[in-house]
Amino acid sequence: SLAATAAAVYLVRRRRRRWSVVAFYLLHEADVDELPLLEAAAASLSPGVTLSWGTEMSRAPPEATVFVARLPSAEALDSLKRLRAVIVPFAGPTVTTRLLLRARPHLSLHNAHFN
Fold first, then answer.
1. To 10 degrees, what angle do helices 35-43 and 2-15 make?
2. CB–CB of 10/16 below 8 Å?
3. How far apart are CA 104 and CA 3, in angstroms?
4. Tens-digit pLDDT profile for residues 32-45
5. Is 86 helix (H, G, I), strand (E, B) or coil?
């Protein structure tokens, strides 16, 4: 859910005060109805935190430090050169997601337990 994702972005920000958070949410087709909520959340974020979204990776800002996705792909993770954290917006990341992140030890994995 969007609320869980916003909470996770906030927690990442608190843990990583040394860098600004530029978050990109790769929307799944089932998430499109959350657009008004995303717009409201983006307008109310703390200074140093930005949130953008889209249904394609081509919309991701190259300076993204946080990537939010249901099922991140290796290509998506590797395309974001400044990436530091990945947030899965539901209770449990898949085995595939855990393996992808394990192969990229410079990335931290977070998930939202509030779906």
1. 30
2. no
3. 27
4. 788 888 888 888 87
5. strand
Residue 69 CA to residue 103 CA, distance in Å, equals 17
In angstroms, the CA 41 to CA 6 distance is 7
| Bridge partner residues of 23 (DSSP) | 51, 66
As a whole number of angstroms, the distance between CA 14 and CA 35 comes to 25
pTM of the model: 0.83
pLDDT digits (tens, 9 = 90+) for 49-82: 888 999 999 999 999 999 999 999 999 999 999 9
Please, where are the H alpha helices in 1-115?
2-15, 35-43, 74-79, 95-102
